[in-house]
Write a structure and sequence with these properties.
Elements: E1 3-6, E2 10-16, E3 21-27, H1 36-54, H2 62-83, H3 86-101
Antiparallel strand pairs: 1-2, 2-3
Helix pairs in contact: 1-2, 1-3
Amino acid sequence: MKKLFITAAAVVVAFATTAQAEEFKFNFDRELLTTQSGVEKVYDRLQKRIDTFCEDPGLRSLNMRAHEARCKKDLMDQVVNQIGSTRLVSVHRNYLRVASAN
């Protein structure tokens, strides 16, 4: 079960994996969401934080890599939607469009 909580400057997600539920935390300055460059900085930081959160270091099977990819996509979708910034949603949609074209 995934639960997402947001405050003025932080996002916290209880993200359930097959083994255990983990809490995802991401702090950011809401002022950054007022400019395009700020939104891109928040998105880049968020993406790096999610990559670290979802990745399992070491040798992994294709099944485990697929699980990590789903974790990254699902968590990013959830956090971006919860933050509720139209600019952040736009940056995320653009990223997904470019990624699917490759």
